[in-house]
Write the structure tokens for this entry.
Amino acid sequence: MVKLRSDYKAPSCVVEEAYLNIDIHQDHTVVTTRLVLCTVDDAPFMLNGRDLDLQAFRLDGFDIEKDKWPLTDGGLLLEGLPAKTIVETVSICHPESNTALEGLYLSGGMYCTQCEPEGFRRIGYFPDRPDVMTCFTVRIEASRAFPQLLSNGNLLETGDAGDDRHYALWHDPHPKPSYLFACVVGDLDCAADSFTTRSGRNVDLHIYVEKGNLDLTGHAMESLKKSMSWDEERFGLEYDLDLFQIVAVSHFNMGAMENKGLNIFNSKYVLADKSTATDADLHNVESIIAHEYFHNWTGNRVTCRDWFQLTLKEGLTVFRDQCFSADMHDAGVQRAQDVSMLRAAQFPEDRSPTAHPIRPESYREINNFYTATVYEKGAEVIRMLSGYLGTDGFRRGMDLYFSRHDGQAVTCDDFVAALADANEIDLSAFSGWYSQAGTPRLQVRRDVSSVDASIALIFTQTIPETAANTPREPLPIPVRLGFLQADGAPAMLRRDGENEARTDHVLLIEKAHEVVTFYVDGSFDGAVDELTPSLLRGFSAPVILDDDLTMVERLNLMTHDEDLFNRWDAAQSLLADAVIAYSRGQGDCDQLARCYQQILADDNLLDQFKASILGIPGIAVLESRIKPADPVALHDARLALQAALGQALCDEVDACLANQATHAETAGGRALLNQLLALGVAAGNAAAVKMAGAQVLDANMSLSQGALRALMDSESPERVSGLKAFHDRWQDAPLVMEKWFQMEAMSSVGGTLERLEELMQHKAFDPNNPNKIRAVLGAFMAGNPARFYAADGSGFDFIARHLIDIDKRNPQVAARMALPLTRMAAYDDGRKAQMLYALQQIQASKPSNDLGEVVDKALAASA
Ligand code: PHE
Ligand code: ZN
């Protein structure tokens, strides 16, 4: 059944209060819901329930006979209710056999919940929609073998329940929708700390982990405190309860979940220190802790009216966590990382059969819409709005949004209206970014006139056709830009219609075709045709830029632009061009290498930036540049470029390796060391290979994993011995073993289908654990193009077979993992046919609604 955004109807009842009783037993759980309902109109009111065994149904205390229960497909459909009623249900669910990891389930011996978006209905009968907000009182009862009985809000009371059982009673004073409910029952260790808010309130901070993991919680706790201060300073937002709890669970479909006052995290994003996690992992933990914490205001205090509005909370919260990370670290490097992710995940989605606008118009399964588009492109849209209003204007808008909508479930339009009203500005032009799918292409051509010393920039935007079939009107595209002189110095230009010359300009391109003219400043005596435009600085809009820059001009930007993001991005373009040239047997990297020599020698640049500018774009980015793309050939060409760069930069590589100890001291130094080590290994530099072999056993995980990654595609014995040593060292550390699985699966040398089957039989592999599935099959699809895209279709077949199996246990994970199989458009007919065949196999297996939606869309697009 397809749901449409346009079908929205407000709920016909208000839930004045909700009481839950959760009674956990070894082989079943009994859930009682008691709701005080007040009718708003006489439309029926649904208490959703899924896979529940209803035991009793009461209205105002009177038991209703079983044959009169208003049971329908989706739950109890209440009709003809009086103005105020108390509805009570008693039902049974089975967390002990729940492998979908939605609703109440068991993870590593503890009970936990995942309710977003529609998981609550698998726990008990309830109006499971985000626009029904109410205050929850929750009683949890379980065996004393589980000391922790946790839920949202404040703990009111605990006590004995007889029979070696006990109970806890929680009350959350903040009204919330069912998707933010959580409960955890387990025997856990707790790291405790506290935070004093700006207004002087004390907040207890508890991080619960499986026994024995306390020593891995320090980084998460520090990250939480940083997030709490940052939100106070940047947005004036304070935490609003006396207790903030985080629970780390091993079995989790996603990254983490912002349940009110009781965040539940994939343990991978909590448990980390320098010996078990890389610097990048630690950075990730920090940003996910921040993301979930920030949801307390953007998501929880003000939530979504319906799930079509998901980007209201997700796009905004990703934007907030990106700003936080930029403040905590280097803003330029952070921006490069965010854009790199957008290009690798969202741009491909936008040209795929599952393309959708950030605010979708329809869905079959809402779980399939937790996408890079809703999250990352959604964040880009907020960034454009924020840039357009300026930091202060955006803050004014946010303030109004909270004061107007606190405690409400609202829409994206409400959000934009608050920004507009607070600034007395019309933002209606931006609405197209919410309703149109597809990545706009922005073409920029130059018309240079030495007669009047001007440069006209000719902008043409095109909105592509997508599978979503949304309108294709021109969008407002903010373009930040400047000009560089031939020696790299910033040039002062005056924009037509303005009085002053400047080095940095912001345009808003709104029409399909626009020309903007710049005049050189009187003080500039060079030739106007020697100026290099630096376009789309900071990636000021999520578009594909099609410019007419020469290689020399890009090298100029890469070496000199004052905008660090554009330096990185110029390198990305040059590297992509180089890979494609290598794939055609015409590769050459001399000029690039000379530019890198200059950058590496520049003491004013951070090591972290040097490392990031050395990163070669991945296959997902490369394949968008040629049609049809051959991922296997691109992978080989990428290795060839790496080898050539490693050769050309051999002095830099040797110097860095000789200086290993110094580099090893900082995160930036380690990143740079790892990059150069990888180039050295790719170039077959014997010293580099030897050093990588030794570095695999370094006590610092960044260095250890960096060394293994450097060896991944090398035929050397060091790869084999390194993987073995890593395995033996970490075989009892389940999270670290995920790295080992990944590296085994990604190796173009060792990661054969036979090896993958072996990995899935390994004792550290758990077919019910999404992290493990992603570490083997996900890493294989994303990181082993030579084998996944093998021309005989064996990689696609293999994945299809496993997805059919996974789908029976965990449809959400299966649907998400099927996405790479649906991205057929980029490839030649042979590969397309192989992918199609794999999809047909899945379709023939009668997949879940989740996987079915993805596969049906892909098959429809290719019909
Ligand atoms: N709402 C979570 C987040 O973005 C993601 C999530 C969605 C987690 C659905 C679990 C299930 O932070
Ligand atoms: Zn989120």
In short: Residues 114, 116, 253-254, 256-258, 291-292, 314, 370 surround phenylalanine (ligand 1) (CB under 6 Å). The first strand starts at residue 3 and ends at 4.
